[in-house]
Amino acid sequence: MKAARKKKPRTLARGLTYDAATRTAQLSVYVKGRKGETRLRRTLHDVSEEEAEKALVAFRAKANRGTERPTLVAPTVRTFYEAYFDLIAERLSPSAAKGYRTVIEGYILDRFGETRLADVSSGAVNVW
Question: What is the CA radius of gyration of the chain?
């Protein structure tokens, strides 16, 4: 009598390996703009295939957030805030992020929201 063979984990998508027996997923994502030098990995336990695929999409988006190439024209303060504040806030405590958001939305965007970042100087802030 032959012993039952253990199934190998299978690749569901590029960067996603799933083991149905243990319900374990391994995610692997290369960060854009780093020439293949930076790879992020994460292991998820007790997840379904569908949950693993959704997690890969979210993991890939988070890994590549903020890697867009800069434009020749500086963005406005409002555009920069909308694009990057959530990324910056992830590294802050919830109360600090809330405080910064209140000050930025209540004061800074009213005055400098449509001003290009390159045009915001210490002199302009001091005059304000």
Answer: 22
What tens digit of pLDDT does each residue of 47-75 get? 998 998 898 888 888 877 765 565 667 88
CA dihedral 85→90→91→93, nearest 10 degrees, is 100
The two three-digit tokens of residue 30, written as one number: 């290369």
Burial class of residue 27 in the structure, from the number of CB atoms within 10 Å of its CB (0-12 exposed, 13-18 middle, 19+ buried)? buried
Cβ neighbours of residue 109 under 8 Å, at least 6 residues apart? 77, 78, 81
CB count within 10 Å of CB 47 equals 15
User: What is the C-alpha separation between 2 and 21, in angstroms, rounded?
Assistant: 20
CA 27 to chain centroid, in Å, comes to: 15
* DSSP line for 11-50: EEETTEEEETTTTEEEEEEEPTTSTT--EEEEEEES--HH
Q: What is the pTM of this model?
A: 0.49
59 is written with which tokens? 């993991």
